[in-house]
């Protein structure tokens, strides 16, 4: 059984595809379950307002991490046969991996590929994998990651002779937690373009929020409705783009302002937001304004 589960995970690595509402508190840089004595002692020493603030901050991190991992995370086995949870990023954005390590209080960050300029956050020891399982179990939303996690949990139970039960998540993505912020950090993008319309003799600027999801039309339709967007099928990608156009961006802007991005994509978002505001102010209709906007467009993803 162990060998079979590991073979499934190996296949998924080569062919990529928590107990519910758990609360966490920080003590000396580590996340602890609320039931642990050290966490209780630390929380009890705080005032009620401080306790609430810390709980909200950590809940935001938990949901951001789940969303981010649904896009860029992986549950599987490494080349040495270890069960592993990992998140890979471009080395220019390795800071977000150190942020994850610091917030969790465990795991390691290292260069994954000097050639490809990538870093990875990794957890592969039993005790900390149990903590990872506790965070994600019952909270995953996308079909591909749910399947990957189920196989991972099966292999974990067989390897360590445990009986951790998989919890099915019946909830959908919503705007009340930081899940979509994390997923946007992994799979979203902010785009702008400007061109001169000879018919109207005016410059037109398009400002869009786009997030991608492969082979999950139910998820895509639900998210599009939630954020006032539409779904576009990409044949070359065999997946879907959820797109929100210039005039319908208020929902996603309000959401991201409430649940900030944590990668360098946040810088792109701030530049994109400046362009959006300039268009609202109709600055693109003046020669000086359109030049400033074109300059900002070039800087969005630098």
TrEMBL record:
Coiled coil: none annotated. Residues 65-155, 180-276 form the Homing endonuclease LAGLIDADG domain. InterPro entries: Homing_endonucl, LAGLIDADG_dom, LAGLIDADG_Endonuclease. Keywords: Mitochondrion. Pfam families: LAGLIDADG_1. SUPFAM superfamilies: Homing endonucleases. One of its GO terms (molecular function) is endonuclease activity. One of its GO terms (cellular component) is mitochondrion. It comes from the Eukaryota. This is Homing endonuclease LAGLIDADG domain-containing protein. It comes from Pseudopithomyces chartarum.
């Amino acid at each position: 059984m162990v060998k079979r589960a590991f073979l499934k995970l190996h296949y998924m690595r080569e062919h990529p595809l928590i107990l519910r509402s758990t609360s966490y508190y920080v003590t000396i840089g580590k996340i602890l379950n609320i039931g642990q004595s050290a966490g209780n002692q630390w929380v009890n020493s705080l005032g009620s307002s401080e306790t609430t603030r810390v709980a909200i901050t950590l809940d935001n991190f938990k949901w951001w991490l789940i969303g981010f991992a649904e896009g860029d995370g992986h549950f599987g086995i490494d080349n040495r046969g270890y069960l592993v949870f990992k998140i890979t990023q471009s080395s220019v954005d390795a800071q977000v991996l150190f942020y994850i390590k610091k917030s969790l209080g465990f795991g390691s960050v290292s260069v994954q590929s000097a050639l490809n300029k990538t870093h990875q956050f990794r957890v592969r020891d039993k005790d900390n994998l149990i903590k990872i399982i506790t965070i994600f179990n019952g909270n995953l939303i996308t079909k591909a990651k749910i399947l990957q996690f189920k196989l991972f949990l099966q292999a974990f139970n067989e390897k360590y002779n445990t009986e951790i039960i998989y919890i099915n998540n019946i909830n959908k993505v919503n705007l009340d937690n930081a899940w979509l912020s994390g997923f946007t950090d992994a799979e979203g993008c902010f785009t702008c373009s400007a061109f001169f319309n000879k018919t109207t003799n005016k410059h037109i600027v398009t400002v869009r929020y786009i997030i991608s999801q492969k082979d999950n039309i139910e998820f895509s339709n639900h998210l599009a409705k939630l954020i006032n967007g539409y779904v576009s099928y990409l044949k070359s990608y065999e997946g879907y783009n959820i797109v929100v156009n210039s005039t319908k961006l208020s929902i996603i802007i309000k959401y991201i302002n409430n649940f900030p991005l944590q990668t360098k994509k946040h810088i792109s978002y701030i530049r994109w937001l400046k362009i959006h505001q300039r268009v609202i102010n109709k600055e693109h209709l003046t020669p000086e304004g359109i030049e400033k906007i074109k300059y900002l467009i070039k800087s969005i993803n630098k």
